[in-house]
Amino acid sequence: MDLLRFITCGSVDDGKSTLIGRLLYDSDSVSLDVLATLEKRRATNGAAVDLALLTDGLKAEREQGITIDVAHKYFTTPRRKFIITDAPGHVQYTRNMVTGASNADLAIVLVDARQGVIEQTRRHTLLAALLGIQHFVLAVNKLDLVGYDEAVFQQIVADYQLIAAQLKLANVTAIPLSALQGDNVVKRSKNIAWYQGPSLLEHLESVPATTDANPNEPRFQVQYVIRPQTEELPDYRGYAGRIQSGTYRAGDRVRIWPSGLETVIDAIEVNQQPVAAAGAPQAVVLRLRDDVDVSRGDTIVPVGAHPAVVRELEATLCWMDERPLRAGRKLLVQHHAAVVKASVTTILQKTDIETFESQGTDEAKLNDIVRVRIKTALPLVADEYRQNRVTGAFILVDEQTGATLAAGLIAATDPEYFTQEVPAETAFSI
C-alpha cells in the first residue's frame, strides 16, 4: 500500500484542524479512547464534537483556538496510507508551515468561502510551490455559511486560477466543502448537488503517489563516524548516514568531497547486516577500503557523479527571524550534517506576495521571500534544489543563539554564474 504525505495550509480560522478532524472522524480513524473523550466533552458542553481537538494538542492551541505547532496525524483507508501535516495559518508561524511543507507531496489550500483568496492564501501557495509540491487542492471551506452558493465557489476558483497560472501550478483540483458539517470531506454532499467531482478523500486516494526513492545521482553525506575499537572489532571504521539519492553498491569506486580523495566501498551494512547494494532513503553504514580522512558532513559519491563543491551559492530564502536580514550578516549554513560559517553577501530581490514579481530590496523582514548570495568559509557539497530536493535545501542558523533564521533552497551553484552580472528576474522562480 503506497503512502501520501499532505499538508493543510491557508489562513488562520479557515478550518484546517477541523478539516483534518473531520477526515479522521468520518473515515473511522479515531481511536475508541479518544472518541470516548470527545463524546464526554460533547455531553458536558451540550454542543457538537469539537473536531479540532483531534489535532490541536497543545494547551496553548486549545486556549487560543489556533494551531501553533506542526502536528502530524496518520491514518489508513483500504486504498492508501496517509500522513497529514496540520500547519499553523497565523502569519506569525509561517516558519512552522515551511517546516511542515518540506516533506509533503500534496498541499490542501483552504479558503474560507466568506473571505475568498487572501494574502496568506497566496503566501502559502507560493511557499508550497517553492518547496516543490506538485499537487494542490483548493478546498473552499465553510460553504454552509454562504448557503452552498455555487457562484461563490466559482468566483474563488477563478481568483485562485490566476495564482496557479502565475506560479505555473500544473495540478490543481478545486473542491467545495464544509468541514464542520462533513460536506464533501469523506462522503459526497447532497447539499452541494451542483458539484459532480470527487470528495476530498476520494481525490486523496487517487492522486499519484510520490515514491520515497530519490533517483537522482548518488549522494551520501556522513552523519557519524563509527569506531568501536573493541576486541571484536579492533579495526572497524564505518561511516553512518542516510542515502539521500541514488543507489550505492559494494565495490563502487567513490570520491570523498570536499577533499577529493578516492577509494572503494568495501562493504555496505543495513541494520548491521551486509548487503550488496542500498538506495535512497535507506540508513546505511559504508565501510571504505582505504584509511582516508572522512569527517561528519563529508559527502561520498561515485567517481562518475559530480556534485557542486562551492564556497558561493545563490538561494531563495524564507526569512523566519524578527530581526531583519541585511547584507554582510554572518551566520551558519546547516546543510544536513554539514555546518559551515557563512555570510550573506548580497540580497538580490524580494518576491511581492500580491503579484509574485521580484523587486529590489536591501533587507529581508519576517516571512519575506528573498533571493540572496551566500559565501561560505569552507566548501559545501550541494545541488540545486530543482535538481535534487533533498540535497538542494538548507537552513540558516544564528551563530550565537542557535536559532533557525531561514529555510533556503539553492538556486545556483555554477562558479561561472557568479562572475556574471546579476540577472534581472521579473517573476517567481527558484
Write the layout of secondary structure elements.
Blueprint: E1 3-10, H1 16-26, H2 32-45, H3 59-64, E2 71-76, E3 81-86, H4 94-101, E4 106-112, H5 119-130, E5 135-141, H6 150-167, E6 171-176, H7 200-206, E7 219-221, E8 224-226, E9 238-245, E10 247-249, E11 253-257, E12 261-270, E13 273-275, E14 277-279, E15 283-288, E16 299-302, E17 308-319, E18 325-326, E19 330-335, E20 338-351, E21 358-359, E22 363-364, E23 369-382, E24 393-397, E25 404-412
Parallel strand pairs: 1-3, 1-4, 4-5, 5-6
Antiparallel strand pairs: 2-3, 7-9, 7-16, 8-9, 9-15, 10-14, 11-12, 11-16, 12-13, 12-15, 17-23, 17-25, 18-22, 19-20, 19-24, 20-21, 20-23, 24-25
Short account of what is shown:
The chain is of the alpha+beta class. The chain contains seven helices and 25 strands.
